Records
---
Amino acid sequence: MSGAGLTHGGFYSYFRSKSALYAKVLACSFTDPERNNPWEGVEVDLASSQAAAQVVKAYLSRQHFEDVENSCSMVALPTDVMRSGEETKRAFEEVFAAMVQLLEQSVADEKQQRHATAQAVAALCVGGMVVARAIENRVVADELRAACMSIALRLGGWVDTGGWVDTSALKNGGRQQLVEECLTSVG
């Protein structure tokens, strides 16, 4: 804030509450079509028939993992949101619902189960990234991201999208190979 010539008090005076600030920050590419993807080398075409798989791969990508400053607010703020008021929780819910809606459009599942599947995939993406960032051991964090990506893609039925990894490698002791293949597929 000092780089922008603001004090904490001056910054917060633009918002009626901390919850209002969080609600504003929670806007992201799922709710703001004008917001550009900040992760270099990660492309998501929301008009594509592969958009859902692209979102999963982008969300769990190395670029998103490493770019904490430009992270999706659902990953950066969950504990703050949990302790905030209704306005902030509604904003978080709106962003999560937008992600679920985008995923739900192409889930390969029975119509009545699409919503639940899309919710599970979204939770795997957000929760997987939160936990991966909390782990000090980078190899373990990368394995977790790869596992979440593999399961999310399989749950959504996006097995034929570019970069899909055959999970049978896990049965044959190829865990590291699976991690490398998943991470290579997203950059």
---
Amino acid sequence: MRQPAILSLFLAALLSAGVGCTKKETPAEATPDINRQLLPQQAQPISVLDKTFALNTAATFPFEIPAHSAQPHLHGMFQSFLGKSRDSNEASNIDFVIMNQEQEESFANNHPSESLFSVEDSHSQAVNFDLPPSFAQPVKYYLVFQNPRGSKNSKTVQATFRVEF
């Protein structure tokens, strides 16, 4: 008789412990924006730059990644030519960098600055770069093309860049 009584007490204890262990869920509005789900994919890529331009010292092209972009990927290419000719060789080399807003502000104010991505002394370059995800706010980036210091020749640059998500 003793075994059924112990078994009954044990089952009663288990049942009463299970009743008190209910977890309340936090409402969705209480979750901070940074934890909101990132967009897995945008419908269309964004064209960032599709242009032929003259480069004397530097040219900057801003672009923006929409908020909640999970895997923005910048890709494209540029080719530089000496003056208006179509000769693309070492004499037509340029520098290229990708900067975030803080880096570009330092660069624009002639302060030493780092960059997210850089290519030095190139006249033809393909670029593939994974940008950091954006969270609650859109993020601004800059493509910067520079004529190397000491170069007195104007260059012509043909560039095509886009961002896919």
---
Amino acid sequence: MCNWGQSPFSRFAKICVYSQKHPISFEMTKREELLQNAALREELRKMQAGEPYDAHTPEMYAWRDETKKLLRRLNVTEYHEPTMASITRELLPNSAENVYVEPPFHCDYGNLIFAEEGVFINFGCIILDGGGVYIGRKTLIAPGVHIFTAEHPTNADDRDKWEMCRPVRIGERCWIGGDVTICPGVTIGDRVVVAAGSVVIRDVPSDVMVAGNPAVIKKQLNK
């Protein structure tokens, strides 16, 4: 059973903004080079902490541009090409090595997606992962699913200046149906089925099927 604990990073190696999994290279990557900038590090810290942050600084644009370059490589690569796995690993450095992503795929950062072994993400998914998206093992994400951690103030003046993020957590062995939307701050338990087209705006316990807009429990599962 998934047990997320008190920290959103409790089930995974805690990271800040880039992976420590791979062997150290003497050549600094572009992302590591960008992280030398204190202003970028501060906005990323606030973003991951759920504090108001400015997503529109030059440093933040440059950070997301590096993700867009990886996404372009992923989305023009055929699944059978040997480079597919290495591009996916570079885009999702904090996910298990056997996570599979069907292009086209879009995300804000990539390194803030924490997907465990056997996770499958089908065509056309969009994950705004600024607050962290945690997906348990063997969970299936159907085509067209949207997972959002980013949100904006309802006050227009504040909305012009900043945004904030809340993490999304999805348990193990779930099935998230086609065109589902999962909103910021939602936690979904283990072995949950979310019916196609649902909009999930509140937490979902384990072993249930939910459906609708907003999604509500329709029946118990796995009795």
---
Amino acid sequence: MRIATTIFDNFEKKTVPATLIIGIDVGIIQEVGNQWKRERMLKVLQGIKCEHFHWDWGRKASFVNDLLAYEFFAVECQGIIEGLMLTESVSHRAELPPDEGKPLVYVEFVETAPSSTTFLCDAPHYRDIGSRLIEGAINYSIGQGFEGRVGLLALPQAERFYLKMGFEKVRIVAEAGLFYYEWAAKAFQNTLDIRKQ
């Protein structure tokens, strides 16, 4: 599925057309993931902190390919993939009241292209890519009948972004050393302009 959206081009200083893709070919994910992995490693070698430098999108795609619980999302602009996200919608349950125990869409991984990641480059090309992906997860949750509930573990470098998006910090997950965040549409319906799909 392809859905028209927009992101902001920092070079052109204007909003530009983009596409949110739900369900993306594994070969494309592997190609993009390998390119991003090389770019991240170069940044690490330059002394730039990158908490997800080891991520391997190709391996993730191969592992969950054809499993119905998982869905890949991408943001594409001018024919280039600028963001990727992997969600799972079966095994996780909400923790925020009053929805404890209800199903949600769990964001396993989400990443903006290194060329548009603020802590990896001095002049990011685009912004709003992560927002469009998270909006996609929220709308996907609504489509699944989960009322917009979304959960995820946040890397420290991304926590501020999730709080800005209206997520609530729920608890520390000791085994991961990361905080679990949750977005509940009933609690935060005024904090995010969810684009109708």
